[in-house]
Specification:
The protein is mostly helical. The chain has helices at residues 3-32, 36-62, 82-109, 113-143, 147-157. It is elongated. The two termini are 23 Å apart. Bound molecules: fe (ii) ion.
Length: 168
């Protein structure tokens, strides 16, 4: 494998773990602000991000490459509202989509078709992730300051469960 691609996949492992901590920070905000359903929802998101990180890590090993585990920046710890957390999530997911596209660009440039095949799963996954956050943001916007509406959304968010995706 070309070192350039290995280096960028190693960076991606860090970004995915950063994502996990970002969503854990949001789960914590929800726990402290009487939104146990969204606390669960963000914790499930955290599990998904750890799954992503581990997929990248395993892929490097599958290709007989050296994985480098590093630390990362502190995620934000203060949010002004659930909507604020969801807005920040969407910005972050757009950034991650850009990263996946960048990795794909390199894989094509280096004619690494195994990496292209591997990254295709993440291309689809990012579409789902952005859509999932957009739906939550839309609904939270819709209820606005309506307490009973938010209470109902929170109850729905409580039902989200992490199911490890089946990789074809
Ligand atoms: Fe991710």
């Amino acid at each position: 494998m070309k070192q350039r691609l290995v280096d960028e996949i190693n960076k991606q492992i860090t970004y995915e773990f950063y994502s996990a901590f970002l969503y854990l920070s949001m789960a914590s905000y929800c726990a402290e602000n009487d939104l146990p359903g969204f606390e669960n929802w963000f914790k499930v998101q955290k599990d998904e991000e750890e799954f992503h990180a581990t997929r990248f890590l395993t892929y490097l090993h599958d290709r007989n490459q050296h994985a480098v585990i590093t630390g990362f920046e502190n995620p934000p710890t203060e949010f002004t509202s659930l909507l604020d957390a969801l807005e920040k999530s969407i910005e972050h997911e757009k950034f991650v989509t850009g990263r996946i596209n960048y990795l794909m660009d390199i894989a094509y440039e280096e004619k690494d078709y195994s990496a292209v095949d591997f990254l295709n799963w993440f291309v689809k996954e990012q579409t789902e992730e952005e859509n999932s956050f957009n739906i939550q943001r839309g609904q939270v916007k819709l209820v606005g300051d309506n307490g009973p509406g938010l209470f109902q959304l929170d109850r729905e968010a409580a039902t989200r469960v992490f199911t490890p995706p089946v990789i074809p």
